[in-house]
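Tip: read the tokens left to right.
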């Protein structure tokens, strides 16, 4: 029986945190009989702070919840991809992603990275394993669903031409962040939405995205970044246009769940649009959007068939 309830953390946090932030090792979860220890969660917190410095401002209780959610999701993915792939034989792809991480962190070489990891008491193999799991999960999703991708290039091109034609000398760009959540049932939608809204009021949109969002953007506080109006669907564009800066949208239905968007900023840029470039960007955005939706759907399916127990 699955016993996966985050309320647990609020009830026993203070006793659990004593073990978590000490060197004592205790089993916190099992995932299909695979143990997850307090030290693993501690290392997860350290790693998550490394890749997102904003987490240094988050209280310990929320960090435990987020790190536990993160490591549970990763373990579920790892157990699933082991059915299809070998782990530890993808050095070239892992190294490429590792250097992207170094660039993001502002580091120049692996020596600097290794020194940083040493200070944080993390092993580079720990980081490489995390990278490889995510790469293989994305590969698994692509192989399972590539024949189900439905991208109408002609329609996207036609819509793009119409958007460009209707724009004036300047075009709107929007800086957006998101929270994607998937209620377990129709009856839970209102309750989950209220819980997320309460969290936003208490700890802000970014921290709430980190804790509750199931999107791949959760680790960066839900940040999507700057998008041109021409890169948004008609539905999303219409919603965003009616938001003030700092305002949050109503919950939007998507195949992967309910979506909340916040307009962080907006600007106008001079209209210098290359149709071919914009079309390529639009096709990539649509492809990634569909793959992310398939990823969320497949993960939920795998999660339902996974036995997770709290110890």
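Filled-in amino acids:
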């Amino acid at each position: 029986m699955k016993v996966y309830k985050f309320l647990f953390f609020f009830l026993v946090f203070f006793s659990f945190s004593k073990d978590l932030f000490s060197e004592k090792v205790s089993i916190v979860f099992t995932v299909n009989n695979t143990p997850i220890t307090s030290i693993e969660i501690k290392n997860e917190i350290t790693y998550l702070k490394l890749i997102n410095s904003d987490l240094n401002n988050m209280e310990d209780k929320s960090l435990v919840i987020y790190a536990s959610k993160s490591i549970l999701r990763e373990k579920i993915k790892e157990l699933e991809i082991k059915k299809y792939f070998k782990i530890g034989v993808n050095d070239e792809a892992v190294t490429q992603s590792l250097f992207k991480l170094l660039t993001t962190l502002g580091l120049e070489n692996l020596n600097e990275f290794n020194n940083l990891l040493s200070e944080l008491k993390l092993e580079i193999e720990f980081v490489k394993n995390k990278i490889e799991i995510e790469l293989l999960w994305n590969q698994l999703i692509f192989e399972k669903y590539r024949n189900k991708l439905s991208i109408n290039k002609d329609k996207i091109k036609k819509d793009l031409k119409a958007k460009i034609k209707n724009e004036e000398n300047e075009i709107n760009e929007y800086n957006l962040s998101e929270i994607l959540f998937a209620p377990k049932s129709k009856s839970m939608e209102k309750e989950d939405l209220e819980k997320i809204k309460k969290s936003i009021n208490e700890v802000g949109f970014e921290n709430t995205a980190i804790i509750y969002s199931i999107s791949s953007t959760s680790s960066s506080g839900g940040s999507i970044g700057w998008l041109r109006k021409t890169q948004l669907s008609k539905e999303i564009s219409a919603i965003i246009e009616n938001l003030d800066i700092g305002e949050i949208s109503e919950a939007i239905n998507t195949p992967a769940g309910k979506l909340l968007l916040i307009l962080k900023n907006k600007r106008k840029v001079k209209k210098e649009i290359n149709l071919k470039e914009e079309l390529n960007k639009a096709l990539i955005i649509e492809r990634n959007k569909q793959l992310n939706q398939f990823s969320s759907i497949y993960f939920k399916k795998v999660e339902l068939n996974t036995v997770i127990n709290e110890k």
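The first strand starts at residue 27 and ends at 31. The radius of gyration is 21 Å.
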